[in-house]
Amino acid sequence: HAAEAQRTDLMTITRHVLNEQGRHPESRGDFTILLSHIVLGCKFVASAVNKAGLAKLIGLAGDTNVQASNPISDLLYSTLLFLHTNPCDGGWPPRVAVQGEEQKKLDVLSNEVFVKALVSSGRTIFGIYMIKDKDNVTLDDVLQPGTDMLAAGYCMYGSSCTIPNIGKIYSVNEGNAKNWDAPTAKFVEKCKFPQDGSPSKSLRYIGSMVADVHRTLLYGGIFLYPADQKSPNGKLRVLYEVFPMSFLMEQAGGQAFTGKQRALELVPRKIHDRSPIFLGSYDDVEDIKALYASESIIG
Ligand code: P6P
Prior knowledge:
Strand order of the largest sheet: 2-1-3-4-5
Bound molecules: 6-O-phosphono-alpha-D-fructofuranose
GO biological process, one term: fructose 1,6-bisphosphate metabolic process
Shape: elongated
Helix content: 25-40%
GO molecular function, one term: fructose 1,6-bisphosphate 1-phosphatase activity
Number of strands: 10
Oligomer: single chain
Strand content: 15-25%
Domain Fructose-1-6-bisphosphatase class I N-terminal: 11-69
Organism: Oryza glumipatula
Domain Fructose-1-6-bisphosphatase class 1 C-terminal: 163-292
């Protein structure tokens, strides 16, 4: 039971702050309430993103700029404002908050500290400072050096992230290049020396499928663990590596391919079956599918 308790003994922001507050009985709890409202605001945004889909919430990717408001940012902001000026808080004397996309926007948020919330597509980043003079609150209060920041954090809105149709990154263990089959070798060559005048892709390879696929989900591109002479069925396990990551990639608008078929249509025969995998941005995977298709035609 101790091991199980250890595994599930998660430290949350609220738990950490309450622990800290317990060590300072003289504290009023402003910071605790502010952080718990930020956490609640982020959960509210996360649930909205999961329902509406990230791309729809922020409009077309890249639409936001300093002038334009950002729907996620507004959603988080109005949630925080509501929570902090809601009468159930006992009429907190509100203070200052600044929302990333609307530098000029000065809103009331909480007592004695303020939140500088920057919400860009898919994640919220915030910093918290102390108001310098609570009887004379100005926009200058947000123009403090980072060294004066009391706390900072971020929230990533995960499962509704949608990836670009084509990416700037390819992710593969180039050390296996001598063992690759022709379609994989041709695809990687195309990434490095594109013949159509497009910019070459950057190579990023961490060597942990979760980390490489997480980056692919966030920024696009393609992750490859192909079959080769050393591993004729590839290295990654179907049931607990290929399937879960292929599922997530398809949900994010990408695709996952084995060199022969859609990865999710594989039917494993044994628990530890392995499969080659090419997964990522839709058009990048289309490119490698075309190379394997022409290979099978040439035979
Ligand atoms: P290589 C980790 O050992 C793992 O199973 C995957 O998480 C990762 O993508 C792959 O192997 C890395 O293998 O041969 O590049 O070291």
